[in-house]
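Reopening this one. Same input as before:
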Amino acid sequence: MKKLLYLTFSFLMLLMMGSCQEPKKTFIIPEGHVGMFGYGSLMSKKLIDTGLLAEKYEGPFLSAHLKGYKRSWSFVWPSTLPGFTTDGQYYRSSILVEGDTIFPQNIHYLNIREDSNSVINGVLYIVPFTDLPSYDGWELGYERFEVTDLISDYIVEGGPVFAYRALPEFTKDPSNDFTENIIEQSYMDIILDAFDYWGKEFEKEYQKSTEPFDQRIIRKSINIPWIDPPLDSLEVLRSKFKTPS
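Same output, byte for byte:
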């Protein structure tokens, strides 16, 4: 009898706890827009304002969570492909080691990979449909995919939410050898800028949901102009993006 009463009491407590939870807020995507979930450089409002858009972003910019994925430094950009800036300049990333110029084989950036037991924090905002080609151009080597039903904080209405993940041929975990692979300090500065914007608790949650790496591969890079870059390879990448209807 006591056991039955205990089980009944426990069940009632669970019902009460569930009823006390705040209802999810609604994230409404206006007509002509899509949602975007940023978990790396796209967590930085400064980058969005100055690096991707022609004017300051004034829309909703919210802390959010994506379930079923884990963050890691597993996107790799090979040195056989030129890096590029938003103004159309192409370059090779190099580092100085004891006065010698070295071209690391790979540059690593943040990526997400499926993990049913993981939830990552990031940023939810809106993007005009017409700006998607600019985002796709910025995220070469990634694929844009829908994550609407994986946003755990909000009920999304009005359109899809997208995120980017590395294409299979651009996925590789970094080693601890900085002559083989580096994380550019300039990219890390963008992540640090996002932490300044969102605060310490956001940063702690980011660290918990991101696979560790050897900090010694963070290096200040020098961009050397690429006079005759292999643009055909970049065009092949760009052709892999198809704007959804």
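So the earlier flakiness isn't reproducible anymore. For the record, The longest helix spans residues 2-20.
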